[in-house]
Amino acid sequence: MKADVLTLEAKKAGNVDLDDAIYGLDARADILHRVVNWQLAKRRAGTHAVKFRSDIARTGKKYGNQKGGGGARHGNRRSNIFIGGGRAFGPIPRDHGFSLPKKIRALGLKTALSSKLAGGKLIVVDSIELSEGKTKLLVEKLGKLGLSNALFIDGAEVNENFKLALANIPNVDVLPSQGANVYDILRRDTLVLTKEAIAKLGERLK
Question: pLDDT tens, 122-134?
Answer without folding.
Answer: 999 999 999 899 9
